[in-house]
Amino acid sequence: MEDSYSFAAGPAQMPNEVLVRIRDEMLNCRGSGQSILELPFTGAVYGAIAEQAEARLRQLVSIPESYRVLFLQGGAYAQFALVAMNLMGSTGRADYVETGHWSTRAIGEARRYGRVDVIASAEGNGFTRIPPWQTWCPNPEAAYCHITTNETADGLQYHWLPDPGGSPLVADMTSDFLTRPLAIERFGLIYASAQKNIGPAGLTIVIVRDDLLEQAQACTPGVFNYGIQAASHSRTNTPPTFAVYTAGLVFDWISAQGGLDTMARNSLQKSRLLYEAIDDTPAYSCPVERDCRSLSNVCFRLDNPKLVESFLEGAERHGLFNLRGHGARGGLRASLYNAMPVSGVERLVDYMKEFSSQHSSPKSLPII
Ligand SMILES: *Cc1c(COP(=O)(O)O)cnc(C)c1O
């Protein structure tokens, strides 16, 4: 089908305008006569590309001068360990909040490098609700407090920000970075791997406050040492040059759309359409409590789980791809990142209603 939509959690659908620009510039990048794939990372052309990407990101998010932007590799999963290696040094302990699949992974990795206290957990409610702030017990000695602003596999998202007092707030924002305005000065550090909302896999963005740069444990690899990477402008070794170039194009695209306010408005519109369909149409349900529902990853279920395969097959016939839930959680999931147009969600909702009317059994059989 010509116009198909991918609801994959990542690597995700890209803005079409960006793909076209990559194609057009592929053989001659910025008048250099070379492809972006051939440009040395130490050269002037790549240097300008990386600087422009960073400048555009700083403008989009209003990043203060006192924060560094790092372009790293290894994905968010690497950051689970690297945050601990780089930041735990001061006290050897950190606070974590457990809200789903990804925060659980972050906790598991961090435990290898120091003491981790889980100061609030949603495990008891089956990961359907973010623990309310009043129930958290932050430790004054914690080097930082780690949250996952959007749980990609479970469909939970913070719609408020905690203030853990003395210790800096650190957030995995992989699946909701750039989907809404962000008060970066409320955080000590945030990180996001690119393949959800930024660009191709292979790039991880870290935004870190200056005063947190020099606390790395001695065993921290040089390429993963925030201080060393900041000092070399993320060019300690070869950076993921194509992914940085593409991220720059995506930042330009977001700006041209109207910036993060527009992304937030679109996100609200798309997710509202879909949650209304889930709540109002027989055959579907969403286990997540309303005030914690993710606007980026809508996780839902079919009341009859045996129909999942036939739902997915029918969806593909309608040009709607990658709606299977996360492997660890099952069910269905529609990821509605920035590049997903409203028309994709409208088509999904139409298909869901059609599928429901074909498969819901009548409540009572007619008497002959
Ligand atoms: C996808 C995702 C990860 C893992 O990212 P990788 O790039 O595969 O390491 C971690 N955290 C969140 C919130 C995610 O959505």
User: Could you give the order of the helices and strands?
Assistant: EHHEHEHEEEEEEEHHHEEHEEH
Query: Helical element count?
Result: 9
How do the strands of the widest beta sheet line up side by side?
Answer: 2-10-9-8-5-3-4
Largest sheet entry: 7 strands, mixed
Molecular shape: globular
Rg over CA atoms, rounded to whole Å, is 22 Å
Number of strands: 14
Percent of residues in beta strands: 15-25%
What does the average pLDDT come to?
95
Structural class: alpha/beta
The ligands found in this model are: pyridoxal-5'-phosphate
Distance between the termini: 44 Å
Taking pLDDT < 50 over at least 5 consecutive residues as the criterion, the unreliable ranges are none
The percent of residues in helical segments reads: 25-40%
Structural key phrases:
three-stranded antiparallel beta sheet; 16% strand; 368 residues; globular; binds pyridoxal-5'-phosphate; 9 helices; alpha/beta; seven-stranded mixed beta sheet; single chain
Your description of this structure?
There is one protein chain. Helix 1 (16-25) crosses helix 6 (241-257) and helix 3 (75-87) crosses helix 4 (101-110). The chain has helices at residues 16-25, 44-61, 75-87, 101-110, 226-231, 241-257, 260-280, 308-317, 342-359, and strands spanning 5-6, 67-72, 93-98, 115-121, 145-148, 150-151, 156-157, 169-172, 189-193, 204-209, 284-285, 297-302, 320-321, 332-335. The protein is built from nine helices and 14 strands. Strand 6 (150-151) and strand 7 (156-157) form a beta hairpin. The strands form four sheets. Strands 2-10-9-8-5-3-4 form a seven-stranded mixed sheet. Strands 11-12-14 form a three-stranded antiparallel sheet, covered by helices on one side. Strands 1-13 form a two-stranded parallel ribbon. It is globular. With 368 residues, the chain is an alpha/beta fold. Helices cover 33% and strands 16% of the residues. The mean pLDDT is 95. Pyridoxal-5'-phosphate is lined by residues 10, 75-77, 102, 148, 152, 172, 174-175, 193, 196.
